[in-house]
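Archive record:
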Amino acid sequence: MSKLRELSHDLGATIYFFSTDDNDLELYGDVKGLYLPEYDIIYIRDDLSRTEQENVILHELGHCNRGHIHYTIHSKMYSSKQEAEADYYMIEYRFKEWISHWDFEPEIYELKIERFMKAYEFNNTLFNLCEKVINGYCGYYETA
């Protein structure tokens, strides 16, 4: 978690954990985290698993890194694009982390999307973005 705090510091954001039982934030649905760009604050629920907290922090840092501003006047398509960009940031970070744990440079056939997704508790809605990140790596790997 200290690497994520360092990364958030580098991006100029502060991370706060909150309890869903005792907070002043009004969250709708199953919101796990929130980035408030006007304050450079990331709020994360404290009842999530460590892996899920890290994923949410990385997703919210993706918003911070991309300079996303959430206005209610944005269209649903614009919001979806921002969410996909934040997810991509999270997945790319996690993929680099996953690869760094290997003792050797993996062969392309060894990079199983399902294993990667399971390692970081990603749900199936992220499959296409995971595939895009891995294919990007494989493209680099083939030309290197």
The chain has one domain: 2-143. The radius of gyration is 16 Å. Residues 51 and 120 are 7 Å apart (CA to CA).
